Amino acid sequence: MDFALDDEQSLVVSTVRRWSERQLRAWAADADRAAAPPDALWGAAGELGLLVDAVPAEAGGMLEGGAAGYSHLSRALRGLELGRGCAALAALCESNVEPSLAVLRFGAPEAQESLFASIAAGDPTVAVTAHDAAERLEVAAAGDAIRVSGRLGPLPGLAIASHALIAARGGGEPVLLLLPLPAGAVTPISPSGWRAAAWGALELDRAEVPPALVLARGAAAAAAIAEVMSWYRVSLAARALGVASAAIEHAVAYGEERVQFGRPIGRFQSLAHMADENQTAIAAARAYALQAAWEIDRGLPGAADSASRARDLAARVVARATIDAVQMYGGYGFVNDFPVEKLMRDARAFEVLGGNEALMRVLERTAAGGGG
Amino acid sequence: MDLLHGESMFQAVQQMMHALAEREIRPIAARHDREESMPWDLMKKVRAFGLTQTAMLDARKMTGEEDAPEGDRKPGKSARMSVVGAEELAWGCAGIALALAGSGLAAAPVARIGTEEQKQLFRDALKGEDEHGRVKVAAMALSEPQTGSDISSLATTARKDGTHWVLRGHKQWITNGQSASIYVVWAQTDPSLGRAGVRGFLVERGTPGLVPGRKETKLGIRASETAQVHFEDCRVHQDLMLGGAGPSAGLGDTKKMLDATRPVVGAQAVGIARAAFEHLLERVRAGSLRGAPLGGHQHIAFALAEMDMEIQASRLLVHRAAWMADHRMDNVAMASMAKAHAARTAQAVTTRAMALLGEEALEPGHPVEKWYRDAKIYDIFEGTGQIQRRIIAKHLTGLNAC
């Protein structure tokens, strides 16, 4: 086993870290207040290749060797850094990956063309992964086409997206499809977390998806969805841990700066212990997230399970870390002049997006246990 | 509620406050949270209703120090009355509950150590309406940018100049800081005396040198106004020094009063936790959580059981601390336990409820998401969770643990 980063991974980390610390952090507070990303985000993210790294070279992107050539480990490393900058802007920077890889991996040429053409046309962001939204979305077969009804969202990026990648596995037949979003149909909304992430929701009434944009159905779809969700969950885990790291870094620095009762508050044992426990949790969850990414890259059979558990753990770690960071800041933690109250709001989405996998696993494990 | 069994007066207060919370507070809570605005209309309505803002948090009553002669005191009821009301109002909306009761923070020290003239001045300052036609409110100005938990290190100074005191300094996180008609300001009159040198002053709006500052944008309790207040050589007549010239009316006395408000603050946290718990329970009973009947799943059912267990335990602590105050027992450690436990419960319940609700809790204006943001301040203001544990531990060991 080798835990060292190779040269390319090290370069990804240092480049994205510099950009995230200098640029994303500088934008974060204003973007949060405005509930919109800065216009300059797209150019800067594009220069770093964030929006097209999963788009094949022949379609104007940076990916060589098809979907198998994509490194989820590099993406996770970059997600850790983006999350340290701003969860909302990080989500937008990452939103093209799942749809791009999904159409490459499972889609017909028409689906690839439809998606990559709009990415190439510079539509700000392209698509968003919807997921286990079975209870809110109804998916019905209409011959070879699929009809989708119900409420899509709230999802980050949906308000500015050209397509939504929908992975529906509840209800009837599992389906993975690419839904083109009619301009102006999405209602923009501003939840209290990831406020700058251009959230939207869309009411669908038997929206018809042509066969070419249905990426997989039935048993094939179940496997495809597991794969897509594992990409998404590892990315969520990495970004969540970036937010958690930022929260505890801020808290530790503030604990050294703020003096009460004649000493820096971070040197009172309870607060020192609080920071220390979080650092342990973040380090463990980070190792797990990177392992899950490494398993995906190798196509190991347990990858989807690892990704889902790593996301669960990371969501809990970021919830704790951001609440504790606000605690370290005390009254200043509660007002928006300081960065940590935003982080506490931003923590919630990591728990919700990507589904409640812990519950799904438990339901599966106990489904046959009704004998008593 | 079993805790009020056979006590019709408490039950009546609870029912009245619950009706107020349900009919008047809940419907406007999301809007005031979104707009970060004080519920001025409701404040006026509530005052017309005969509930003065200050009655809800009269710390003198809460500590049981009524005017009865020494040795002839029956147990009071006002501390428990306060916690019963506070839980219901915060169940409606903690931010609005704080807005309704915010003046009480300033009223408490006036009632406790003010002279008769000062009490009259304070009451007069809150009569009628201000220039915007709003209910008049008061502010307690104690915390400072460098003085949060450690309230003995105030940097705001009061310098004697003839018949006046000259106040200079900055106050931070002041409830009603922008809108108050009268302020109770704490300042150091003689650094050589340490805590004993810290005295309170009544300062009316419009006094030259009193400069209300910027209003804060907060994570939660956004219907309650929090602002900075600046004192730039603000001259205050010596008669406005709280308690007069005597030496016994300093901060030490006020600290005791902060202890007295802790059960009430704890009760508010219980109210938030209960709101989130009940919301989840109703959804589970109706079979509408995640679109499925999940009440038979331990995953959900045990979470509900855990929440109820913690809420009941918190409420018992709150009532016990209040009951001790009513019986004039030393409740310092119990009040800290009640406040710290309730704060932890409110955070745990709202966080868990968010997770169980899933993506619907991300919808803007979702009540549970708001309660999650409101809950956090309860582990911070009126003594952080760390300060409460320090107090409890000192009670046990006699030592100041670092």
Topology overview:
The complex is a heterodimer of chains A (372) and B (402).
Chain A: H1 7-34, H2 40-47, H3 72-85, H4 87-94, H5 97-106, H6 109-120, E1 127-129, E2 137-142, E3 145-155, E4 163-168, E5 175-180, E6 187-188, E7 200-209, E8 214-217, H7 218-257, E9 259-260, E10 263-264, H8 269-298, H9 303-329, H10 340-352, H11 357-366
Parallel strand pairs in A: 1-4
Antiparallel strand pairs in A: 2-3, 3-7, 4-5, 5-8, 6-7, 9-10
Chain B: H1 8-35, H2 40-48, H3 59-62, H4 78-92, H5 94-113, H6 116-125, E1 138-141, E2 157-161, E3 164-175, E4 182-188, E5 198-204, E6 210-215, E7 226-237, H7 251-285, H8 298-326, H9 332-357, H10 367-375, H11 385-397
Please tag this protein with its features.
heterodimer, A: 372 residues, alpha+beta, Butyryl-Coa Dehydrogenase, subunit A, domain 1, Butyryl-CoA Dehydrogenase, subunit A, domain 2, Butyryl-CoA Dehydrogenase, subunit A, domain 3, 3 domains, 4-stranded mixed beta sheet, 4-stranded antiparallel beta sheet, globular, B: 402 residues, 3-stranded mixed beta sheet
In short:
The complex is a heterodimer of chains A (372) and B (402). With 372 residues, chain A is α+β, with helices and mostly antiparallel strands.
Structural description of this entry:
The complex is a heterodimer of chains A (372) and B (402). Chain A is of the alpha+beta class. Chain A has helices at residues 7-34, 40-47, 72-85, 87-94, 97-106, 109-120, 218-257, 269-298, 303-329, 340-352, 357-366; strands spanning 127-129, 137-142, 145-155, 163-168, 175-180, 187-188, 200-209, 214-217, 259-260, 263-264. Chain A has 3 domains: 7-120, Butyryl-Coa Dehydrogenase, subunit A, domain 1 (Orthogonal Bundle), CATH 1.10.540.10; 127-216, Butyryl-CoA Dehydrogenase, subunit A, domain 2 (Beta Barrel), CATH 2.40.110; 220-366, Up-down Bundle (Butyryl-CoA Dehydrogenase, subunit A, domain 3), CATH 1.20.140. In chain A, 54% of the residues lie in helices and 14% in strands. In chain A, helix 5 packs antiparallel against helix 6 and helix 7 runs antiparallel to helix 8. Chain B has 402 residues and is of the alpha+beta class. Chain B has 3 domains: 2-103, Acyl-CoA dehydrogenase/oxidase, N-terminal domain (Butyryl-Coa Dehydrogenase, subunit A, domain 1), CATH 1.10.540.10; 138-240, Butyryl-CoA Dehydrogenase, subunit A, domain 2 (Beta Barrel); 251-397, Butyryl-CoA Dehydrogenase, subunit A, domain 3 (Up-down Bundle), CATH 1.20.140. Chain B has helices at 8-35, 40-48, 59-62, 78-92, 94-113, 116-125, 251-285, 298-326, 332-357, 367-375, 385-397; strands at 138-141, 157-161, 164-175, 182-188, 198-204, 210-215, 226-237. Chain B has a 4-stranded antiparallel beta sheet with strand order 2-3-7-6, covered by helices on one side. A 3-stranded mixed beta sheet of chain B has the order 1-4-5. The radius of gyration of chain B is 21 Å and the shape is globular. Chain A binds chain B through residues 133-136, 154, 189-193, 199, 201, 259-261, 263, 265, 267-271, 319, 323, 326-327, 330-337, 341, 344-345, 348-349, 351-353, 356, 359, 362-363, and chain B through 143, 146-150, 153, 172-173, 216-220, 226, 290-292, 297, 299, 347, 351, 354-355, 358-359, 361-364, 369, 372-373, 376-377, 379-381, 384-386, 389, 401-402.
